[in-house]
Structure formats: C-alpha cells, structure tokens
Design brief:
Order of helices and strands of chain B: HHHHHHHHHHHH
Strand content of chain A: 15-25%
Radius of gyration of chain A: 18 Å
Largest sheet of chain A: 6 strands, mixed
Oligomer: heterodimer
Largest sheet of chain B: none
Number of domains of chain B: 1
CATH class of chain B: Mainly Alpha
CATH architecture of chain B: Orthogonal Bundle
CATH superfamily of chain B: ABC transporter involved in vitamin B12 uptake, BtuC
CATH topology of chain B: ABC transporter involved in vitamin B12 uptake, BtuC
Distance between the termini of chain A: 41 Å
Number of helices of chain B: 12
Largest interface: A-B, 32 and 25 residues
Radius of gyration of chain B: 20 Å
C-alpha cells in the first residue's frame, strides 16, 4: 500500500435527504495510521458521513476515495462497528458464527469455513478478550460483551481502516475506557475513525478531532475549548466534567 | 382411528402418495420456514402465498397445469415484493397487502370464467393432499433437491443476509441477489405446500414448525432439522387423524401444528418464569 496515499480522502461532499441538507461541502483527508474522532450535535451529519465513507449511501456531490479507489471497491479493507446492532438480539446464532460472518469476502464462496477462518475468528475474539464467549448465543450477551463481539467481527477480516459509530453509546463509562484502550492498541496497525458524543473523553485518545454540524471543522485535540464547541453546536453547551476510572476486567 | 389409517396406508396407493407429499413438503417448510421465522418476514411470505392464486387461475383458464401457474406466479410475486422491500420500504406493508389481495382477485376472476374449474377452487385454497398426482410428487421432489442444493451451497451468504444486511453488504455479499433468491425459495416452498394445506393455510405450515423449533434450540441448522421433523409429524399425524372421520386433511394438519405451537409457547413461558424465580431465589 502506497504510504503517501490518504486512507480516506473526502472532497467537497454534500448530501441531502429529500429537501433537508445534511452535509455541505465537506472536505476531509485522513492519513494512514491516524486516529480521528468525529464529534458534533445530533442530526449534524456524523452517521451520514460514515455511511458515505462505507459506500452505503450514493454520492450526490463530491468524491470519496479509500486508498485511492471508491468505497465500493475497497470495502474489504474496512472494518465497521455500528452504533446499534442491525440484527435481532434473539437471533439464533453463536458469537463464533457471528464473528465468522466477518470473513465473508475474504474466504472461499462455497462450503464450510476453512481452518484459517476459524483461527482468524479465535484471534479476533482473543484480541477483544471475548474468546470465552465463542460458544455463547448472542441473546445471552450483555451490552458491553456484544460491543466487543461486534468489534471482533469488524477485526476478523484484518482491515486497514476501522470505522466505529458511537461504539460506547450503550455501555457504562468503565467499559468505555476499556474499549478506547483497545482502539489505541489497534491504532498501531490500522487507521481508526470514531464518531463519539463525548468530546472531552475522546480527546485523550484521538490524534485529531473533526467537528461536524453540516459543515466540517478539523482541529488538533489541544485546540478544543468551550468556545469552539459552543460555536460548533450553535447554542450554549453545558460543560460537565467526569473522570473515567481505570478498567477492571469484567468477570 | 390410527389403526384404520395404517391398514389403509398399506393397501391404498393414494394414501401412500399423500404421505410422501406431506414428507416432501415438510423438508421445504423446515428449511425455508426457519429463514422466514428468524428474518421475521411472515407477512411477506403470506403475500407471496396468496398472490399465487392469480397464476393458478390463469393456468386453469388457459389450459396449463395449475401447479406450473402457481410456480410462475409465486416467483414473479416474490421478485416484485423483494423489489418493494429493497426500494420502497416506507410503503412496504401497504403494497404487500395490496398485492396479496390483487393476486387473489385476479385468480378468482380467472377461475370464475373457467368452465368446470370452479369446483377446484376449494382444493386450491385449502389443499387436497389425497389427490396429489404422481407427476406432482416428482415436481415436488425436484423442487426440494433444488432448494437444498441452493441452501447448502450458499448457507453462509443466506445467513449473512438474514442476520445483518448492512454488514453483509460491507463484506461484499451481493445482498440484493441473495435476498431475492431467498424470496424465490419461499415461493418454491409455497408451491410445495399448496397440495398439502392449500394457499390459505400455507403460511401456518411454513412458520409454525420453525417457530416451535426456535423455542428449544439456538442454532439455525438445528432449527431446520427439528422443524423438518415436526413438519413431518404434523403432516403425517394430520393425515392419520383426518382419515377415519373423513375430515379434510389440510385444516386437520394446521390444527395439529397450531395446538402444538400454543402448547409449546405455554411450556416455554412457564419454564422462563420458573428459571427467573430460581435465579432470584439463589441471590
């Protein structure tokens, strides 16, 4: 992979749902190995921008390149963790089977999974410390366990870019720290883009923050202050300080 | 009652063919019914099943085999409803309901204009497993082979699309193709079941065995096996129970499956409550 090539290059992207504009002339270049946080108010276009990066939404204006090619051509290089699971929580499937589905596209089309696929699933589960959950059905998982499994499913295809949409929105603060510590480790070998509502918290982890409210402003993490956040959100924002306690592994 | 059925079964070829038809139908309903239940597309499957009457009526009117007409109508209806699901989601419920009724209306009009065929309306709607011709058994067997081959070859792709369409798309699974193929498999299964229970009751036999299986196992493969076994028990049992009192077999099969489902649901809820009480007591 050419190291000079941007992992994700977004040029002049605008998008509207019907008459409602969501993104306006968004320009963003994400370098290989970067850990980028995207923050902004609800309905500010964060999830829409992610879906355009993933090729789930058609481009209406502008261009998006993933390592120099269209998102549809480069999907195999992307791992994705959605905000909410798109599947029914009572679906009859084990954790191992769910993670193995992440191998599709990277393995043979017909017949059973290979030994290499199963090994990759085991490794991905070990990486997120969820290997002991492999034979459990997904309906028996807690919110935090499910989040780890979805992360393993994204990692099993060995992606070059990991995109996460509010990965800690449905779990408690202790697990939030744990997940972001994992992401910091993963960032040593892949580019990471994470959408989060918690500007102060992700500032400790990401190398750059993109503030999105229809238009986009990018900042180094040390340049984010109350005034900037207020300008971005367009209204007064209460500043609440909280401290994340060190993680103790769940039983 | 059962002894009388077993004695007749050993001598009457029409009963033997009815039993084989029931078993062939069970295989389809076990495998595809599991997909319908876990994907929660019972309403869509019902739409496909009922719009089949248009094809049966048209085939009868123009002098073709009604089962062939049913197969063509089921596939067309499945593709149309799949397209609606993929491109017109906001109106999906209304449109499927409309296609459901329009299909039946077209079928009823054709049947009303077909001399001598009006008497067959009841057998289309409620099935008549005792009148399955041998050539239809071969067609059912062929459709089963096709169905098992496709599911066996593309099991992971079907699982991915049923489990999480968005993620499947990201992994380069051709989601639209496999979703439409799944609906075509449902269409084929509906045709398999028409002789056994008729198109009005088909949706019950398609979903109830898989729903009962889902109460006890948490794997798609095991659900398919158990649903197939249950489907075989219901079709054979319904046939046996209906024989001596000369009841129609289709509704008897459905009543048997429906009773088993209600009983299983009660047992499942009771077990869940008992487990919860035991768990609280151990605190």
């Amino acid at each position: 992979m050419n190291e000079q090539l941007a992992a994700i290059d977004i040029q002049d992207v605008s998008f509207a749902y019907g008459l409602a504009p969501v993104l306006q002339n968004v320009n963003l270049s994400i370098a290989q190995g970067e850990f980028l946080g995207i923050v902004g108010p609800n309905a500010g276009g964060k999830s829409t921008l992610l879906k355009i990066m993933l090729g789930f939404l058609p481009l209406q204006h502008g261009s998006v390149l993933i390592f120099g090619k269209s998102p549809e051509q480069q999907r195999s290089l992307i791992g994705y963790v959605p905000q909410y699971p798109a599947f029914a929580r009572d679906f009859p499937i084990t954790v191992e089977q769910a993670v193995l589905l992440g191998r599709l596209g990277a393995t043979k089309r017909f017949g059973p999974y290979s030994a290499a696929d199963r090994q990759a699933a085991r490794q991905a589960l070990q990486e997120v410390e969820a290997d002991q959950l492999a034979q459990r059905v997904i309906s028996a998982l807690s919110g935090g366990q499910l989040q780890r499994v979805m992360l393993a499913r994204a990692l099993v295809s060995n992606p070059k870019i990991l995109i996460l949409d509010e990965p800690t929105a449905n779990i408690d603060m202790r697990l939030e720290t744990d997940i972001f510590d994992h992401l910091r480790k993963l960032n040593k070998r892949m580019t990471i883009v994470v959408v989060s509502h918690d500007v102060a918290f992700i500032s400790d982890y990401v190398s750059r923050v993109a503030c999105l409210n229809r238009t986009l402003i990018c900042h180094n993490t040390d340049a984010i202050d109350g005034q900037l956040i207020q300008e971005l959100y367009g209204y007064h924002v209460h500043h609440v300080s909280h401290q994340h306690l060190p993680f103790a592994p769940a039983a | 009652m059962i002894t009388e059925f077993l004695q007749a079964l050993s001598t009457q070829s029409f009963l033997q063919m009815a039993l084989i038809a029931g078993l062939l139908a069970s295989l389809g309903c076990g495998v595809v019914g599991t997909f319908v239940v876990v994907k929660r597309i019972t309403f869509l499957a019902g739409g496909i099943a009922h719009s089949v009457l248009a094809g049966m009526g048209a085939a009868a009117y123009y002098g073709f085999d009604p089962l062939l007409g049913a197969l063509v109508a089921a596939i067309l209806s499945a593709l149309l409803m799949g397209w609606i699901h993929l491109h017109w989601q906001a109106q999906e419920d209304t449109l499927i309901g409309a296609l459901w009724a329009i299909g039946m209306a077209i079928g009823l009009l054709f049947i009303s204009q077909t001399p001598g065929y009006t008497s067959n309306l009841t057998s289309y709607l409620f099935g008549n497993i005792l009148l399955v011709p041998e050539q239809d058994l071969w067609l059912m067997a062929g459709l089963n082979v096709l169905l098992l081959l496709l599911v066996g070859l593309f099991y992971h792709q079907f699982l991915a699309v049923i489990f999480d369409e968005e993620f499947a798309r990201l992994r380069n699974v051709p989601v639209t193709f496999f979703y439409l193929l799944l609906l075509c498999l449902i269409a084929v299964t509906v045709v398999l079941l028409i002789h056994v229970v008729g198109l009005i009751l088909v949706i019950a036999l398609l979903t109830l065995p898989a729903a009962i299986a889902g109460h006890y196992v948490h794997s798609l493969g095991k659900m398919m096996v158990i649903a197939t076994v249950l489907g075989s028990i219901f079709t054979s049992g319904g046939l046996a129970l209906s024989y001596a009192p000369d009841l129609p077999a289709g509704p008897t099969i459905i009543l048997l499956a429906g009773s088993a489902y209600v009983g299983s649901e009660i047992v499942r809820r009771y077990r869940a409550q008992r487990l919860a009480r035991r768990s609280i007591a151990s605190l």
